[in-house]
Amino acid sequence: MLSYQHAYHAGNLADLHKHALLAWMLAYLTAKPKPLTYLETHAGRGLYDLSGPEAGKTGEAAAGITRALAQDWLSPDHPLRHALDQARSLYGPDAYPGSPLIARYFLRPEDNAHLAELHPAEHEALARVAGFAHLHRQDGLQMAQALCPPTPRRGLLLIDPSYEVKADYDTLPRQIGLLARKWNVGIIALWYPVLTDDRQAPMVRALRQSQPEALFSEVRFPPARPGHGMVGSGMVVLNPPYGLEAEAARLSALFARL
C-alpha cells in the first residue's frame, strides 16, 4: 500500500499553483448552463487542517497559501479564494480544501463527479466530506480509462499522482494519449513535481511531442527545507479553456518573485 499522505504538504506552493489553475477552470466551465463531468484520479482526503501536526511539521503551508493570502496573490474574486473561504466558513479558519472540495464548491446538482482514492485511511476521510461524488477505491487511472468518455461529455479530468511509483513518469504520456483519444473534448490536466534531479523532464518532453497543443505551466520556488527535492510545480492541460494561459502567466510572474 502506498504511504504518501498529503496532509504534510497541503497548502504548499505546489498546491497553490495547481489549485489556482484548477479553480479557474472549474469557474470557467460552470459559468455556462451546461452539465459537466469532473473526474479525479488521486483525490486524497479532500480536507486538511493547517493547524494539525502534519502541516506544522513541514511548515509548507506557511510558505504557501498562508504567505499568498498575506501578499494578496489571490484577489477576493479569484475562484480559489471563493472555494477557500467556503471551506473555512464550514470547517474553521485553518481548513484547506483539497481538489475534491474545490470541485464541490463549483459543481452543481446536474453535474457528475467521480473521485478515486486507493489509500484506505485517505478514502475513509474523503467519504466524510465528498458525499456529492461517486467514490472509487481503486487505481485512479484505471477508473479514468473505464469511464472515459463520461456522461456528460463536457468536463475536466485531474490527474495528480504522488509519483511514489517511479514508473508513473514513463507510463503517463501513453495513458494521457489513450484518454485524449477516447475523450477528445475533455479538459485533461496533469500535475507533476519539478525535481532537482530532473526526473520529470523526459515525461514533459514526451508530452510536448505528443500533445503540442496543450498548455504547459511550470513555476519554480525554493525548496521547502535544505535538501528537499521539489523545487517547482508543473501542470499540463489538454484542451485548455480560453483565458487559462493568462492565469498561468499571472501565476508565473508571482512565483518569479520568490
TrEMBL record:
It is an enzyme of class 2 (transferase). S-adenosyl-L-methionine binds at H19, H42, S99, E117, D139, G140, D160. It comes from the Bacteria. The active site is at D160 (proton acceptor). Its EC number is 2.1.1.266. Keywords: Methyltransferase, RNA-binding, rRNA processing, S-adenosyl-L-methionine, Transferase. GO terms for biological process: rRNA base methylation. The record marks Y4 as: Interaction with substrate rRNA. It catalyses: adenosine(2030) in 23S rRNA + S-adenosyl-L-methionine = N(6)-methyladenosine(2030) in 23S rRNA + S-adenosyl-L-homocysteine + H(+). Belongs to the RlmJ family. Monomer. PANTHER family: RIBOSOMAL RNA LARGE SUBUNIT METHYLTRANSFERASE J (PTHR37426). This is Ribosomal RNA large subunit methyltransferase J.
